[in-house]
């Protein structure tokens, strides 16, 4: 389905205060791809993601989701297709209970009550949060919040899942769980992360941003071997590819 | 300045509930019409901000006491009158339900006193008049000060009036006014300075926020409706007062002789809410405003009392049986509760 | 500040209690809100010298606490916070109102003291009723009831949002306040100027958060409308609950039970 293709063409964005966050970014992501966007703090990752569902309008350039250009008139359609999980789950969970929050999106889509119910149940089950349904969001742990936040997006059955730093602030166990969850999601996934080990495990493609430009685009393993590139982008290879601190072995290649 | 249920009469509570409900409905319609859906989360979060802001306080120079933001005027500056009124109202609902700050019946009074005046009088008529969009920080400070003082003075006077009409407390009108107005002058000045400081900071950091929120509010229909409803309420209150007054032989004197109100909100010296620390402050605060007791007051009071209706335990003979019966009833009530509890638990 | 911190903690506790499960918890929130309002109006509708007529009204909070299994301590603590205020205000009554109204043998009690006791009782009853309402209904429940009573949706949504973010921002406020106290020495840095920028940055963070929430709402198809879902029903149990209590309140309002009992008892022993 051409619907799941994400096409970004020479995208530029300047914030009102004049900061040039994106200075001409182009790439195409195909159906079913799992893509990580990495880069130093302030490289423009979040800014880029916010264009994918039309929250920020491009200063110049274009974003297309499938055949649909992301412009004012197509926002509803685009937002149905692209599910966005924000970095801070507190921003995403705003209803009194987790269940109501998960139902928020489907209700906005105008689905009948039975269908809403089914989707709430199913998406909570998928993230393993069925028991949290009647809990208020402020009584969840960080990992539970994150899972609930993902459920709120899954319940809209998006074709493309976009996540800003999904593992930030999670303990190792919760991070593992989340990675399992993401692996199961069969559609297109795009996420930003500073967790390069996760990138290595989950993605077949990585886009490196540097000061608002694409510095590299390719398989993560190749990119992480390019020491020059990494240094220029203020990145380091993931731990699993660094030398073992105990025996000094270089990169335990799997 | 939160009023409690214990000190108001149902009539006063009902009148102000009605006025407040009308204003809320009007504001809700207005906010929806403007369809500024961006404001939906903003209002909610700013309401929570008021709570958060009250956890941070500052030292008032020269007094050693500390003060903090009340928030009404700031919300009006940031959100415009209608959205601000809804936000203040929501804050007061939460305070009434969870902090027992002001009762449920008194909620109408509290929303009216603390929401209406800053949002619909102080902000549009005072603040905007002194500091139209794009004013200098000096003007904004002056405007904040004037508007905060005006809003709180009106609110405090409204508290006095509502308590007069309710007639549960016996603090005389004149003493009550002399107590409330100066305290709220002090609170107003603090509130004005704090608001000015925050607005000044925002104007530097995010000029578009301070510049954008205030729209022309004088001309539009919603605003006029609100002012009309205010006038209607004032008329009703006036009517009730004069009705009460004329019903008693000693007229207005009687109505006025029976006044008092609950403690303070937003006071720099006593904090917003209850608590023993604030109580101490409060006690310390009173002597400065020692109640002048005009000569002849005692006589008037006695006269007023003679005319006061002999409600409840008015007859001396029934007092002993009243107390015995009361004690027994209370015991029975507790017993019922206890037994029910046992049954539920088992 | 200390007060707000404890208040937030209390709020948290009250809200947890509302998650309980009892016959009372399960009632439709509308019934509970309605009954509580009738209760409060009945209590405050007494005249200013009424004492004995108020006492039987204690039955409502007591029964609610008993049946719903709330820990009585939470209600008592709320009362302890609020009653000093009522007492403070009520204390003016004995000062200004010295006409004797009651007498026990040679001891005369002035009208001021009677109305003082009346104010304390009123405060205890109304606050008790309100605390119990929240503890067995929860804030979301109260909001739902308000909405079903016709309160505009915009206001209900506002209430829910406010409540949702009190905890988040409350924590932020506490953290900022603590961070400043740790770095201010001998009261320096606690003045108005630092305060203004401190609050200002809290406000900016709040503002950004609102933008992000809005963003999250938009990306889930929000178009300015909130859709209601949960249907609770006002069934026979709710009818019985509401009618029963309202009837009792009316009865207690117009028949002074303690005086009746008192007259009976003292009559028997005379
Ligand atoms: N609201 C804003 N107004 C002005 N400038 C902004 C705004 N948001 C971000 N910027 C600037 O745009 C640039 C890109 O920011 P962005 O948030 O996209 O970075 P990021 O790659 O997501 O960084 P991080 O890894 O820290 O999340 C930064 O220089 C930042 O300062
Ligand atoms: Mg980012």
TrEMBL record, chain A:
<dbReference type="InterPro" id="IPR017871">
    <property type="entry name" value="ABC_transporter-like_CS"/>
</dbReference>
<dbReference type="InterPro" id="IPR027417">
    <property type="entry name" value="P-loop_NTPase"/>
</dbReference>
<dbReference type="GO" id="GO:0042626">
    <property type="term" value="F:ATPase-coupled transmembrane transporter activity"/>
</dbReference>
<comment type="similarity">
    <text>Belongs to the ABC transporter superfamily.</text>
</comment>
<dbReference type="InterPro" id="IPR005876">
    <property type="entry name" value="Co_trans_ATP-bd"/>
</dbReference>
<keyword id="KW-1278">Translocase</keyword>
<keyword id="KW-0472">Membrane</keyword>
<dbReference type="GO" id="GO:0006824">
    <property type="term" value="P:cobalt ion transport"/>
</dbReference>
<dbReference type="Pfam" id="PF00005">
    <property type="entry name" value="ABC_tran"/>
</dbReference>
<keyword id="KW-1003">Cell membrane</keyword>
<dbReference type="GO" id="GO:0016887">
    <property type="term" value="F:ATP hydrolysis activity"/>
</dbReference>
<dbReference type="GO" id="GO:0005524">
    <property type="term" value="F:ATP binding"/>
</dbReference>
<dbReference type="InterPro" id="IPR015856">
    <property type="entry name" value="ABC_transpr_CbiO/EcfA_su"/>
</dbReference>
<dbReference type="InterPro" id="IPR003439">
    <property type="entry name" value="ABC_transporter-like_ATP-bd"/>
</dbReference>
<comment type="function">
    <text>Part of an ABC transporter complex. Responsible for energy coupling to the transport system.</text>
</comment>
UniProtKB/TrEMBL annotation, chain B:
<keyword id="KW-0813">Transport</keyword>
<feature type="transmembrane region" description="Helical">
    <location>
        <begin position="41"/>
        <end position="60"/>
    </location>
</feature>
<keyword id="KW-0472">Membrane</keyword>
<feature type="transmembrane region" description="Helical">
    <location>
        <begin position="183"/>
        <end position="203"/>
    </location>
</feature>
<feature type="transmembrane region" description="Helical">
    <location>
        <begin position="72"/>
        <end position="98"/>
    </location>
</feature>
<dbReference type="Pfam" id="PF13190">
    <property type="entry name" value="PDGLE"/>
</dbReference>
<feature type="transmembrane region" description="Helical">
    <location>
        <begin position="104"/>
        <end position="126"/>
    </location>
</feature>
<feature type="transmembrane region" description="Helical">
    <location>
        <begin position="320"/>
        <end position="340"/>
    </location>
</feature>
<feature type="domain" description="PDGLE">
    <location>
        <begin position="224"/>
        <end position="342"/>
    </location>
</feature>
<dbReference type="GO" id="GO:0000041">
    <property type="term" value="P:transition metal ion transport"/>
</dbReference>
<dbReference type="Pfam" id="PF01891">
    <property type="entry name" value="CbiM"/>
</dbReference>
<keyword id="KW-1133">Transmembrane helix</keyword>
<dbReference type="GO" id="GO:0005886">
    <property type="term" value="C:plasma membrane"/>
</dbReference>
<dbReference type="InterPro" id="IPR002751">
    <property type="entry name" value="CbiM/NikMN"/>
</dbReference>
<protein>
    <submittedName>
        <fullName>Cobalamin biosynthesis protein CbiM</fullName>
    </submittedName>
</protein>
Automatic annotation (TrEMBL), chain C:
<protein>
    <submittedName>
        <fullName>Cobalt ECF transporter T component CbiQ</fullName>
    </submittedName>
</protein>
<feature type="transmembrane region" description="Helical">
    <location>
        <begin position="239"/>
        <end position="261"/>
    </location>
</feature>
<keyword id="KW-1003">Cell membrane</keyword>
<dbReference type="InterPro" id="IPR051611">
    <property type="entry name" value="ECF_transporter_component"/>
</dbReference>
<dbReference type="InterPro" id="IPR003339">
    <property type="entry name" value="ABC/ECF_trnsptr_transmembrane"/>
</dbReference>
<feature type="transmembrane region" description="Helical">
    <location>
        <begin position="31"/>
        <end position="49"/>
    </location>
</feature>
<feature type="transmembrane region" description="Helical">
    <location>
        <begin position="154"/>
        <end position="170"/>
    </location>
</feature>
<keyword id="KW-0812">Transmembrane</keyword>
<dbReference type="Pfam" id="PF02361">
    <property type="entry name" value="CbiQ"/>
</dbReference>
<dbReference type="GO" id="GO:0043190">
    <property type="term" value="C:ATP-binding cassette (ABC) transporter complex"/>
</dbReference>
<feature type="transmembrane region" description="Helical">
    <location>
        <begin position="79"/>
        <end position="96"/>
    </location>
</feature>
<feature type="transmembrane region" description="Helical">
    <location>
        <begin position="116"/>
        <end position="142"/>
    </location>
</feature>
<feature type="transmembrane region" description="Helical">
    <location>
        <begin position="55"/>
        <end position="72"/>
    </location>
</feature>
<dbReference type="InterPro" id="IPR012809">
    <property type="entry name" value="ECF_CbiQ"/>
</dbReference>
<dbReference type="GO" id="GO:0006824">
    <property type="term" value="P:cobalt ion transport"/>
</dbReference>
